[in-house]
Write a structure and sequence with these properties.
Two copies of one chain form a homodimer. Chain A is an alpha+beta fold. Helix content of chain A is about 20%, strand content about 25%. Chains A and B meet through β9, β11, β12 and α7 of A and β9, β11, β12 and α7 of B.
């Protein structure tokens, strides 16, 4: 079993008996993981799986005896306030739990039809959701999404941000070095750097515009003040499953087994603070005031139908052997569509639809997740369950696919006009920025990631 | 009560009834914290305090009823496998525990003499160690240091490395930009960047020479291979106590209350990997294969006698207001002596004394710990108990005070000769690098930090 093989859980004919969500993000082919609690009550945070408008309360279903074998073990590992124990278990457990949930939540599946995807073969599984009595048992474990709050679903040990879009790197580089925008290492090294884990917050968490030191144009001395060039970065986040021991690299052919799933990720950036602070050791306070994740983790297994070949441009160097794998070339990239929208405070007040800033796809990235894992560990660095890898800003090949305002406005020179007539170079107080992501292709059921949304509050005096 | 005030625990007349250690690192004026377990047994890791050749088992002493009030609460918080709960409590608790231990372990103190340093006034304290019966109760809670192993004493949430030695920054910068070695931001911004927490290991942990991508001199394409320019960095680490909420900066005048203590820190660096990977986002795989901490944390309170004024060189700019504080100017710097030694495999085999590479002091740093905390949080970034701040390589004003081989050998151009005739530009397999630190001045008792030591193993094929 490998993570990119299709199985019964991907069957486009499957429909759930649970009412679908309006956005169509959470059909039975998706089954993403999150951590939730009801808003009205003194409940603990616990793991759940989104299905339509509902969430399967994994702790409740496990207590009710609805899982068996490895699926039950996986559900127990997801019953606490963080999903790290589930992430540590690895693909066989994740797959057994997914297969069990899929069977139980499918309309018209009888128990005899199950057993694929590691569930039956591993001794896992679920009770049959097909009969009315069993379905009632499952229904008692559902919690309406509209009644809950969601949180960052994982205790993030270390967070690493990469720079995998050659288009983003080129667009940014061009602003500083018009004749030579791309660094000589770019097509050889999956460029990455360490980020701040503590300031990762869940979608919906408003944050204050950061204060910081900046050197104004033509100024002789810097000053402290509110950031004047606040930007978003349209990224995806990858949660690591089982980790590796310090000193033991993960070969690229095994990297897939260490990937749990994806979230949407907004790496908010203070461009003016960054410009003054980043030499010689990289971005710091320009990034660590807030980073927004979507609450649901779409698993690698759910993404199997949307894996695509990585097409390295003609004439580009062949990757070094530790970054090169035939299977990864054929199936290592993911066609995940991504979109950014902006609504000003005035637009929000008047109920106006948000303005679409850009739409792109993760398939344009220059490095695959497996290459990121192989590179990150080639020196012996140890990854742990729940570590977060950011893809970097996922700008596509054309300007309307750019994933940050610094690109869309060419460094603040060309303002964007919003529908109501307002203009933007960088973000203003009251702006709400929402990132969304989804997968779709002919012959597969569309799955969605939900969103990563936040509103910019004024700087604190 | 502030962290830099002297109290009875600093009294140079105090002597412990516990036998002193040979190095003289752990007199009763020190009382550093660590996490230990006996080597021969199935014991759990737990917190302890070094005194002479012994460790006070805090869990055992607490269970035996030897602490009262806030001191007992602090001891309970230090009884588990990581010290984070103790760090979260804050200075009043740390101080009560220290006062209680100092009274109990002092030779010839009677109970009436205690009560200072928050112990008595906060309702804390300890039973009198002066009587033979009480002393026996304490003695039963001592564990010989030679019988234990020590570990990283804290679950490090996030690790940030700073760059606080202007001499190091100048020495490194000169190798790249002889006419203009220091970046324009250096004297305004306490330069820092995020590091990797998972690869922080305790003194004594050998590690393999990292593999990595490098571009050889004159080469057209990079290759993967063992690092050829492996270096050490002589640093100190600062453990954060109570943290701050996201969005709520810590003012410089309050920063001291958030500092728990210091360890020795070796930020091993692969210079050839760094040179090829670090543009444009900073060091990554060149740093995260291993970072070595000393096992004992010397508390801020223990360091009170060694705080000194920060002397900013004449003509340098005055710090911006958020980094400027009268008390910090007068007492914000620490005169912590630091030393690096190297022993080759041949020297180790023949029992030869290690070669001293350099000796310096942390007092030469350009930014104080309080300035680092104020800067780190000015944008709202949240620190948490157990976060680790590295000071950066602590090179002093002269070349023999340099804290890394890249400086001592001028980028590998001038080899160092070892006592047996071997030469070194960078580290070779089998080399053992040991960092030590201590404080001494007339009128105070010398206190030591122990050491951060590790041996370089060959790269894994």
């Amino acid at each position: 079993m490998t993570a990119h093989q299709l199985n019964e859980t991907h069957d486009p004919q499957r429909r759930s008996w649970v009412e679908p969500d309006a956005a169509g993000d959470f059909p039975i082919q998706n089954l993403p993981f999150g951590v939730f609690r009801r808003r009205d009550g003194n409940e603990g945070w616990r793991g759940g799986v989104a299905i339509g408008k509902q969430i399967v309360d994994l702790a409740a279903a496990e207590r009710a005896g609805l899982f068996e074998g490895t699926a039950a073990e996986a559900a127990r590992a997801a019953a606490g306030p963080v999903l790290n124990p589930l992430l540590a278990l690895g693909p066989a457990y994740w797959s057994a739990l997914r297969a069990a949930l899929s069977r139980a939540l499918t309309d018209g599946v009888d128990g005899a039809g199950g057993g694929g995807a590691g569930g039956g073969s591993e001794g896992g599984g679920s009770t049959d959701g097909g009969s009315a009595a069993e379905r009632d048992r499952w229904r008692r474990c559902l919690v309406a999404q509209e009644a809950v709050e969601l949180t960052v679903p994982v205790a993030i040990g270390d967070y690493t941000d990469f720079y995998t879009s050659v288009h983003h790197a080129t667009n940014i580089g061009r602003q500083f070095r018009p004749d030579n925008p791309l660094m000589p290492n770019y097509k050889w090294v999956p460029i990455g750097y360490h980020g701040r884990a503590s300031s990762v917050v869940v979608s919906g968490t408003a944050f204050h515009r950061p204060m910081g030191q900046t050197l104004g144009p033509g100024a002789a001395t810097p000053q402290l003040g509110p950031c004047k060039r606040l930007d978003y970065e349209l990224e995806l986040g990858i949660y690591i499953g089982p980790g590796n021991e310090l000193g033991s690299p993960i070969p690229i052919a095994e990297a897939d087994q260490h990937l749990f799933g994806f979230c949407i990720f907004n790496d908010w950036s203070a461009r003016d603070i960054q410009a003054w602070e980043y030499q010689p050791l990289g971005p710091f306070l320009s990034k660590n005031f807030a980073s927004t994740v979507s609450p649901w983790i779409v698993t690698i297994e759910a993404l199997a139908p949307f894996r695509v070949a990585f097409e390295r441009p003609e004439g580009d160097p062949k990757p070094l052997a530790y970054l090169d794998d035939e299977d990864d070339r054929q199936r290592g990239a993911f066609d995940i569509r991504i979109r950014a929208t902006l609504a000003s405070a005035a637009m929000t007040r008047s109920g106006q639809a948000p303005h679409v800033l850009s739409v792109s796809s993760y398939r344009h990235a220059y490095w695959t997740p497996a290459q990121l894992v192989a590179h990150h560990t080639v020196n012996g660095c140890n990854l742990a369950p729940g570590d977060l890898l950011g893809t970097g800003t996922l700008s596509g090949p054309t300007l309307d696919q750019a994933g940050a305002l610094i690109e869309l406005t060419t460094g603040g020179k060309n303002a964007i006009e919003l529908p109501g007539g307002e203009k933007r170079t960088f973000l203003e107080d009251g702006d709400t920025l929402a990132l969304s992501a989804w997968c779709e292709r002919p012959g597969a059921v569309r799955i969605g990631f939900g969103e990563a949304r936040a509103t910019v509050l004024p700087a604190r005096a």
